[in-house]
Give the backbone structure.
Amino acid sequence: QVLVQAIAPGAERSDLWTIDLARGVGTRQTSDDANESSPTWSADGREILFASNREPPVRVYRKTLQGNEPETPFGKTTEDTRPESVSPGGKGLLCNPRSKGGDAIRGLSLTGDKDPEPILERPYPLDEPQLSPDGRWLAYGAQETGRWWEVYIEPYKRPGERVRVSPDGGGQPKWRGDGKELFYVTRGGLL
């Protein structure tokens, strides 16, 4: 099953759908007048987490896929915040709040009982943070050069060197399931 953001022809907003690839059937998961984006799965696959502009600021919402429970906002934030990836243990969520003068990567507790935790802040745009499956490495996109996005990795919450992975532009980093390889899309659109 995959989780996608879809914009209907002629529409000015997007909704989220799950698609059962084996059966070729899609199920709409959101259907209000807001713009839903940045969908990601919970660690156990029973919930989806996404951003919505239902009311300012853009907030993270969660929706249980079992039953007809309404989507609920969570996390304490005053900035437009988009979910990016769930921690390997399923207890935290890496988010990308948008702020003036730069960007940040923050951690939100999935219990919603804590303030956002600063993970990484820079004076240039950051996006798409992804934790390795073992939780030891953080991959993310950054527009440090001002020309185009590049992919970087660095130790997560421990000292160590930051390394640029993409030699000539890249984005959308994703770890292989065992964490031994990092995939990304090049500036030219290749994986």
Observations:
- The two ends are 21 Å apart (CA to CA).
- The chain has a mean pLDDT of 89.
- Residues 31 and 91 are 27 Å apart (CA to CA).
